[in-house]
């Protein structure tokens, strides 16, 4: 009798392993088939989607694609929301509303909500769960529920080469210069100069680069190892997602 129980137990374990392998193979096939590229846009009709750009499956909420332009070799993680306009099926005019430059990376679960112009410069990398919006609720009337009051909209411009850490929020009207670092969890409003590190809520400049003095205050960490030649944006995105619980880059 113990022999029979061991046989049945081994058979059940084999079936569970086989089922697990089948589920994982099936999910990989679904992810590959559901990914959006220039050659396989599916039901999404973007104003532009450059070669090498890929939106991972499953996608988040996407509407207003006609007014969304995606550059080349962008990496859009799973469950990323990209919207143009307050709601679907609006006519937003002849010009793009949301523009991503070449090589932009948006980490898993990020939101880019463009009710008016939002521009993200080339080679800007966003960690997971970043929120970028050109719209904010107004609360001028103390007697009317905030959600029923018409929102305020201001353009957002993010310069090239920025790094935006996990969970950061970029508010309407924000303008980020070139190679800006936004620490994880920061809330950014207003103008941020080139080559600055900002942190906090609201974010403030905690480090900046001077052509004569270098970084002020000076960096206390060793120089990083350069990214090896041949590393793909997909691999960099995987590293960003793996480090989503890491400490903010600002000291």
UniProtKB/TrEMBL annotation:
- Asked if the keyword rRNA-binding belongs to this entry, the reply reads no
* SUPFAM superfamilies recorded: Trimeric LpxA-like enzymes
Instruction: State the InterPro entries in the record.
Output: Hexapep (IPR001451), Hexapep_transf_CS (IPR018357), Hexapeptide_acetyltransf (IPR051159), Trimer_LpxA-like_sf (IPR011004)
PROSITE patterns recorded: HEXAPEP_TRANSFERASES
Q: Which residues form a coiled coil?
A: none
Q: Name one GO molecular function term.
A: acyltransferase activity
Task: Enumerate the UniProt keywords alphabetically.
Answer: Acyltransferase, Repeat, Transferase
Family classification: Belongs to the transferase hexapeptide repeat family.
Protein name (database record): Acyltransferase
Species annotation: Streptomyces pulveraceus
């Amino acid at each position: 009798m113990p022999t029979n129980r061991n046989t049945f137990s081994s058979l059940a374990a084999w079936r569970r392993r086989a089922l697990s392998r089948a589920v994982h193979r099936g999910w990989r096939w679904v992810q590959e088939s559901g990914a959006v590229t220039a050659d396989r846009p599916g039901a999404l009709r973007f104003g532009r989607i450059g070669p090498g750009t890929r939106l991972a499956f499953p996608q988040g909420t996407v509407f207003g694609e006609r007014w969304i332009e995606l550059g080349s070799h962008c990496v859009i993680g799973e469950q990323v929301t990209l919207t143009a306009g307050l709601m679907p099926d609006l006519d937003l005019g002849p010009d793009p509303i949301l523009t991503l430059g070449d090589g932009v990376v948006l980490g898993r679960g990020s939101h880019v909500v463009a009710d008016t112009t939002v521009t993200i410069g080339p080679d800007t990398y966003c960690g997971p769960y970043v929120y970028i919006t050109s719209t904010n609720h107004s609360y001028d009337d103390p007697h009317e529920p905030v959600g029923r009051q018409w929102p305020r909209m201001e353009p957002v411009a993010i310069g090239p080469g920025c790094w935006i850490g996990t969970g950061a929020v970029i508010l309407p009207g924000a303008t980020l210069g070139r190679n800006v670092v936004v620490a994880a969890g920061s809330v950014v409003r207003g103008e941020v100069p080139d080559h600055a590190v900002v942190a906090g809520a609201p974010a403030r400049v905690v480090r900046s680069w001077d052509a004569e003095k270098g970084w002020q205050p000076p960096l206390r960490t060793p120089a990083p190892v350069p990214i090896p030649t041949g590393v793909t944006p997909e691999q960099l995105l995987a590293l960003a997602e793996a480090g989503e619980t890491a400490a903010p880059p600002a000291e």
